[in-house]
Amino acid sequence: MRKLVLLMCFFVLTMYTFNISLFAEDSTASREQPVVSESGDKNPVIDTSDIDEYADEDVDYVDISMDAASVKDSFPHYNRAVFTFNDKLYYYFFRPLSKGYKAVLPEVARLGVRNFFVNVRTPGRFFNCLFQGKFKGAGTELSRLLINSTIGGAGFSDPAKKYFHLDLQDEDFGQTLGSYNTGAGSHLELPFFGPSNVRDAFGLIIDTALDPVTLLMFLSPYASPAARAYIAINDISIDKGDTYEGLVEQAIDPYIAIQDAYTQNRAKKIKE
Fold first, then answer.
1. Are 1 and 218 in contact (CB under 8 A)?
2. Which DSSP letter does residue 72 get?
3. Cα four-point dihedral sign 210, 122, 221, 91
4. What percent of the chain is helix, strand and coil (3-state, nearest 5)?
């Protein structure tokens, strides 16, 4: 318990440190977001000055309706500062390590490592299925755990999906709260963890408690963070960085791009 309290204090201290350095660096100094009117209107003011030159062309116009619901961002300066930190952490730490790791370990081994930790983390998905009343999903997770832990070689392979067509139930406590119509609250960028919101940040605490990887802290206070870092490096080596880099490198404002992608993805998962 004392180690858990110390880890929580370290997390709060980290958050406070980055709050102090809000204006130290602007992550979008060279990639500004298009200017939006700051009036009371919820819809952005769009410059239509260039439309007239196409007025005489034979063009089929499509009416595109924008989602009026915008992401609430009560701490933009703080969030951008933490986004900058996480972005640099990815490009200068996780990406180089993942490339070296990828060069040493073949893909089949890296996929086995990912399968192993997915199997180990079954309790979080199982309980969140129960919390949401998805009893069939909970049964699927138990079946996957039993099959993959035995004939799957301690979880290094996934015969539950390959041969029994039992799909992973990707549920967490943030989704559980969302299923009970709990609002997302303001957007938050968490150091090391990335984009989140108030609801999901609280859910992360519960998910961490349900994660067997957390138990490693009883062996050493550094064992659990080290294991999570290793899991992240392994996952990035498999993903090849396409997901994150594909978003930020093509975006006018990477912070907004990540924020929107995260919000839409979470809304989709809650509805499923």
1. no
2. P
3. negative
4. 60, 5, 35
Q: Model confidence over 236-267: pLDDT tens digits?
A: 999 866 788 888 988 999 999 999 999 999 99
Q: For residue range 162-189, list pLDDT tens digits in order.
A: 999 999 999 999 999 999 999 999 999 9
Comparing C-alpha atoms, which of 236, 232, 188 is closest to residue 15?
188
Q: Alpha-carbon torsion 211, 174, 79, 99, what sign? A: positive
Spatial contact of 189 and 86, defined as CB atoms under 8 Å apart: yes
Q: Is the dihedral of CA 143, 217, 11, 229 positive or negative?
A: negative
Angle between helices 2-20 and 76-89 (to 10 degrees): 110
Distance between CA atoms of residues 159 and 260, nearest Å: 35
Q: Is 148 helix (H, G, I), strand (E, B) or coil?
A: helix
**How many residues can be counted in the chain?**
272
pTM of the model: 0.73
Q: How far is CA 124 from the centre of its chain?
A: 16
